[in-house]
Structures are given as C-alpha cells and as structure tokens.
Specification:
The protein is mainly beta. It has a single domain, classed as Mog1/PsbP, alpha/beta/alpha sandwich (Protein Transport Mog1p, Chain A, 3-Layer(aba) Sandwich). It has 3 helices and 11 strands. Strands 1-7-8-9-10-6-5-4 form an 8-stranded mixed beta sheet. The chain has a 3-stranded antiparallel beta sheet with strand order 2-3-11. The protein starts with a helix and ends in a 5-residue tail after the last strand. 24% of the residues are buried.
C-alpha cells in the first residue's frame, strides 16, 4: 500500500468515527455480576445485589431482560430500572429508518432531549433522550445495530444516564456462538 492510500485510509476511518462519543469500560464494574444471553450472543454486567428477569413475546421467545435494584420487583406499572430490548431487522434498515415509527416501532425522533451518537466497543450506536412513548417519556434509549437486529438498552424508570446507566452500557459485549 502506497503512502497516498495509507493517508486516505486513515482519513476515512477518522471521518467514520468523528463525532461519536466513545463509551469505555469502567473500573467500578470489575466485580459486577454478568448476565449472558447465548441466544442473542451478548453479555452485560449489572451491579452487585441487583437481579434480572427475562420477558418473552407472544411466541415464548425472549425479547427483553429487565434489571432491578435490591428490593424492587416487577409489577404491571414497573418493568425494571434498566431494560435490554431486542428487535429483528430483516431488511437491514438504518437506525434512523427503523425507529422513525414506520416499522411498527416507537418513533424515537419524537423526543424532547435530542439524540447523540456513541461508539460502544467499535459499534456505532445512537442514544435518544426523553422519547415520547404513549403516555410516558422514557429517559434514555441507546440503540445498538448489529447485522439483522437492534439491541436497545433503556433507562426505563430511572435517571441513571450519567452514572449507573453508562457504567452498565460500557460492559455490553457481543460474543460468537458457543460450540
């Protein structure tokens, strides 16, 4: 590779990631418990003392996992402080095309807090703040596109965006299918 090609390559990589805020792992999470989902091939750490509960769709397939602090339990009105949702994206749509309301999803662009782009373990993700979802406003949703699916890590009933929420998000990792 000649010098011109090297410069073009470096410049192209810089353009691709320019403007994305990087979410780095945090030392505070070293001793946290790990939740692994082999079906969707991801893992995430959660704070000591917290617990989780899986949600299933009408077919019985997992479609979300809810994380709770000590002493809290799921009710009709409360589904967890931090939730990871899973959406299939068979058409390979971009975040903007999938979450504009036309795919039967909530329109993430109807938000009061704007959106911001992040880089999470070399994956370009987008955070939407204060989304209008029916009668309630969800504080933050980080959308992570992965091939034919999206993961959404949602700060559902809390205001952890500046602390615990980002610590948990920083531990989100994909892994290869186990043999």
């Amino acid at each position: 590779m000649n010098n011109i090609n090297k410069v073009v390559l470096v410049f192209s990589i810089a353009i691709v990631f320019f403007g994305y805020k990087k979410i780095d792992a945090n030392e505070d999470t070293i001793n946290w418990s790990i939740y692994k989902n082999p079906a969707y091939r991801y893992e995430i750490k959660y704070p000591e003392g917290w617990h989780y509960e899986k949600e299933t769709d009408f077919t019985g397939k997992d479609n979300a996992v809810n994380f709770y602090p000590p002493g809290k339990k799921r009710t009709v009105e409360y589904s967890g402080d931090i939730t990871i949702f899973y959406y299939r994206n068979p058409k390979g749509l971009s975040i903007d095309a999938f979450f504009n309301g036309s795919q039967g999803t909530c329109n993430y662009f109807l938000n009061e807090g704007g959106e911001k782009e992040y880089l999470l373990n070399d994956i370009k993700a987008k955070m939407f703040f204060k989304i209008k979802a029916g009668f309630e406003s969800k504080p933050a949703n980080l959308v992570i596109p992965v091939k034919d699916k999206f993961f959404i890590i949602s700060d559902v009933y809390t205001k952890y965006q500046d602390d615990l929420f980002f610590k948990m998000v920083s531990t989100f990792k994909l892994f290869e299918k186990e043999k």
